[in-house]
Specification:
Largest sheet: 5 strands, parallel
Number of domains: 2
Shape: elongated
Structural class: alpha/beta
Number of strands: 12
Oligomer: single chain
Strand order of the largest sheet: 2-1-3-4-5
CATH topology of the largest domain: Rossmann fold
CATH architecture of the largest domain: 3-Layer(aba) Sandwich
CATH superfamily of the largest domain: Response regulator
């Protein structure tokens, strides 16, 4: 039985070949693109189960490709792993804020890359199979199926990562979670981010939620919780 379809978008031919070789050996179907524009076309045509996306692409760069993917209904649901030589903290934070499902830096171990691909695809299957829930807490309504948040009836536009953090905290009001626990819950274990990236997303989340953002409390020296 055919396994999942993966799209690799990278302008370096040797990287495309390396990734393709290792994924095909694992039984995946692989399509490649050498530019952002070509990647968008193939994503819309192939509707892959996962996209591996380089940030530093000629013409339309990886971040712009990601934004375009998430704008369109036909591609917005596709998980994306960013694969890039950029290692600065700001780049990791940007990838997280946009909602990427994982982040791998070059040079990388093919075994690690394959493991990350498997982990993201497992999470995708779990999320699709998980019972949908609508949570009502304080002045917020959080719809996990639609990935929508309403505050006093007004829709709030959150990034994928912000929504996942809010939903994770709201499922257990009063519980305190460390930054590592938050990242592990929404990304998987051993995700290469800093405490600062979590703090940045919490600040953005509070701002977007307005007065309701105050229910997300900082527990000094520990992490965050949603007030009961």
């Amino acid at each position: 039985m055919a396994r999942e379809q993966i799209l690799v978008v990278d302008d370096e031919e040797d990287i495309r070949e390396l990734i393709s070789y290792n994924l095909i050996n694992e039984g995946y179907q692989v399509t490649t693109a050498a530019s952002g524009e070509a990647g968008l076309i193939k994503a819309r045509e192939k509707q892959p189960d996962l996209i591996l996306l380089d940030l530093m692409l000629p013409g339309l760069d990886g971040l712009d490709v990601y934004r375009e993917l998430k704008k369109k209904q036909g591609t917005s649901h596709i998980p994306v792993i960013i694969v890039t030589a950029k290692t600065e903290d700001i780049d990791i934070i940007t990838g997280l804020e946009l909602g990427s499902d994982d982040y791998i830096t070059k040079p990388f171990s093919p075994r690690v890359l394959v493991a990350r691909v498997k982990a993201v695809l497992r999470r995708k299957k779990y999320e699709e199979a998980e019972d949908t829930r609508v949570l009502k807490i304080h002045d917020m309504v959080i719809d996990s199926a639609r990935h929508e948040v309403f505050v006093n009836g007004e829709s709030k536009a959150l990034t994928a990562s912000e929504f996942k953090i809010l939903y994770f905290l709201a499922r257990r009001p009063g519980w305190v979670f460390t930054r590592d626990q938050i990242i592990s819950a929404i990304r998987g274990e051993d995700y290469p981010v800093t405490d600062r990236s979590v703090d940045v997303q919490i600040v953005g989340l509070r701002k977007k939620l307005g007065t309701s953002g105050a229910c997300i409390e900082t527990v000094r020296g520990v992490g965050y919780r949603i007030r009961e």
